[in-house]
Amino acid sequence: MQVDLADIDPMAGYKLLTATVTPRPIAWVTSLGADGTLNAAPFSFFNVMGHTPPTIALGLQADPVKGFKDTAVNILERGEFVVNLVSESVAEKMNLTSIDAPRDVSEFEAAGLTALPSRHVGPPHIADSPVAFECVNLSSVVTGPNQTVVIGRVLSIRIDDEHMLDVERFHVDTPSLELIARMHGRGWYARSTDLFQIMRPKWDDKK
């Protein structure tokens, strides 16, 4: 099968993209509304984009009724946000924050989350998350009706001490984070427990 996406319904294209681009890391994004409401929501159109400067990218999709979701509105208006990563132990809480709550409702309260003050930005970390990136909006591109890509510059990273192998050398015990990722259909996730290693080849070793 080969499909030209311009010829099919956008939701059919969404199904094909999300069923094949897997696993996808989850950005559990915290942001602040104009009225100070604390927002938390998960997004799986997310990844790190570079390190000089350190950047991440978020694909923020539309709500079919409200248009831009709270997270997109808050980031575009205030220019700052925190990306928290999701361990398996907080998967249920993360899922609760995906609820279609009214704009003036804080998902922190709905999911029973604990806020941890940020060092450089207004929105707090989710204390339940083992890793958090404090970010400012470096650039944003509107890619379609009520759809935008936000490129964030990472100002600071918090990693819980229990997951550090060597703080001075910045060595992280990545498996211990037990991060989960989004998979294909509705509600499917993956654990990062079945690993294998392939070393990158060097040309001089092959000559």
How would you portray this structure in words?
- This protein is an alpha+beta fold.
- It has six helices and 16 strands.
- Strands 3-2-8-11-12-5-4 form a seven-stranded antiparallel sheet, covered by helices on one side. The protein has a three-stranded antiparallel sheet with strand order 1-15-16, with no helix packed on it.
- The chain is globular.
- The mean pLDDT is 93.
- The whole-angstrom Rg is 18 Å
By secondary-structure content and strand pairing, the structural class works out as alpha+beta
Strands in their spatial order, largest beta sheet: 3-2-8-11-12-5-4
Uncertain ranges: none
User: What coarse outline follows from CA principal-axis ratios?
Assistant: globular
Bin the helical content. 10-25%
- How far is the first residue's CA from the last residue's CA? 40 Å
Short description:
The chain is an alpha+beta fold and 207 residues long. 19% of the residues lie in helices and 38% in strands. The chain has helices at residues 10-20, 70-78, 91-96, 107-111, 174-177, 203-206, and strands at residues 24-25, 27-32, 38-43, 46-51, 54-60, 62-63, 67-68, 80-84, 115-116, 125-126, 131-144, 147-159, 164-166, 171-172, 180-182, 189-191.
Could you name the key traits of this structure?
16 strands; globular; seven-stranded antiparallel β-sheet; 38% strand; 207 residues; 6 helices; alpha+beta
